[in-house]
Design brief:
This protein is α+β, with helices and mostly antiparallel strands. It has a single domain, classed as Beta-lactamase (3-Layer(aba) Sandwich). The chain is 53% helix and 9% strand. The protein contains 15 helices and 7 strands. The chain has helices at residues 2-33, 37-51, 64-67, 100-113, 115-121, 135-139, 150-159, 165-180, 188-195, 199-210, 218-229, 235-246, 261-274, 280-287, 323-336; strands spanning 75-80, 85-89, 95-96, 232-233, 291-293, 298-303, 307-312. It has a 5-stranded antiparallel sheet, with helices on both faces. A two-stranded antiparallel sheet has the order 3-4. A hairpin with a 4-residue loop joins strand 1 and strand 2. The chain is globular. Bound molecules: glutamine (GLN). Glutamine (GLN) binds next to loops.
């Protein structure tokens, strides 16, 4: 009896002992890699309550129509790489996407022409200047700008494939829509307002042309760029766009392949180094996430393999980034412990 008993008893003791050590280790690993629905909802709720009453910042007003947008709009959305959607606050109000579109047009250029073309024809280094700086173009004679500030963005728009202006615009609108998982449309008053007052962007496009760094008619390229900036989105749209990048280029809600994993691989580093204009370094230092902001008040950030998170709140800081959006995203990243650079030693 004893033999029969002791035989199986050794493995049982071994398994039991192993479990004592392995179980907590597995639990620890899981808590580092997975977020429960409750944790995500709690993080969004807390962030919303904590920052809701903030009065800092001011709507952009250099585009007249943006000054008229309700500055109380405040919406948060997080969409996981497997397509779960979490929202808090106002996710129905639309704002113009503005510069957030630049990250996705950049991805489209990489997808259409390859990453080397982007690097050679535009550049990928942060300029360290405000987003509509002419000095940044002049200093490098049109070279080494990047697609996430106006000069590089207008050049990126000029590179989009299409026989004419209308084909290029349709292609951009379709690609942004595929990222968002629904048909997006133009905010006509914002487009008209900016189109009537975009001499500075036209000057940038012409200066790039003078340096041989504009790849389609400068007036038409600036017009398509102005349209692309006036696409209407809410926080949920932006979060799904971010989640598509987090999921290797496949929209996790519609399951449509928008761009390749390699395109995402080249898109995210530029968002990390230049996504928040001349405050990109401060942002990346504090959040660890590639992101893109726009003067309409939206910011989208991407946690690769995990989720896209977006906030819409129009009041901006001096650099042109939404004050509340930055605070909320940083808070949620910290709360969920998902900064990709936070590694627990083995
Ligand atoms: N359409 C705006 C512009 O060109 C976009 C700027 C932005 O969002 N930073 O000025």
């Amino acid at each position: 009896m004893k033999k029969h008993f002791t035989g199986p008893a050794i493995p049982v003791v071994l398994i039991f002992t192993c479990c004592l050590f392995i179980a907590p280790a597995v639990a620890l690993a899981q808590s580092a890699n997975t977020m429960t629905k409750e944790q995500i909802n709690a993080a969004l709720d807390e962030a919303y309550t904590k920052f809701k009453e903030g009065k800092e910042g001011k709507n952009a007003d250099y585009i007249k129509e943006l000054a008229r947008v309700d500055s109380r709009i405040f919406g948060i959305a997080l969409v996981t790489a497997d397509g779960q959607i979490f929202t808090k606050g106002d996710i129905s109000s639309m704002v113009s996407i503005q510069s957030v579109s630049k990250a996705f047009v950049m991805a489209q250029v990489i997808e259409e022409q390859g990453h080397q073309a982007l690097q050679d024809k535009i550049g990928i280094d942060a300029t360290g200047e405000v987003f509509n700086s002419i000095v940044a173009v002049e200093r490098m004679r049109g070279k080494e700008i990047n697609p996430l500030v106006n000069p590089g963005a207008i050049a990126a728009t000029s590179l989009i494939k299409g026989a004419d202006s209308s084909a290029k615009w349709k292609s951009i609108l379709q690609c942004q829509s595929d990222f968002a998982g629904r048909q997006l449309s133009l905010n006509m008053p914002v487009y008209i307002s900016e189109a009537g007052d975009n001499l500075r962007n036209q000057a940038i496009a012409h200066l790039l042309l003078a340096y041989g760094r504009m790849y389609f008619d400068p007036v038409q390229s600036t017009d398509i760029y102005t349209r692309q900036c006036a696409i209407n989105v809410n926080a949920k749209d932006l979060a799904i766009m971010g989640a598509t990048l987090a999921n290797g280029g496949v929209n996790p809600v519609t399951k449509k392949k928008v761009v390749s994993p390699e395109t995402v691989m080249y898109t995210l580093p530029v968002m990390a180094t230049a996504g928040l204009y001349d405050d990109s370094g401060i942002w990346y230092y504090n959040s660890g996430l590639p992101a893109k902001s726009g003067v309409g008040g939206g910011i989208v950030a991407v946690c690769p393999g995990k989720f896209g998170i977006a906030v819409v709140s129009p009041p901006l800081d001096e650099a042109g980034n939404s004050v509340k959006a930055q605070m909320v995203i940083k808070y949620v990243v910290e709360k969920l412990g998902v900064n990709p650079f936070l590694v627990q030693p083995k």
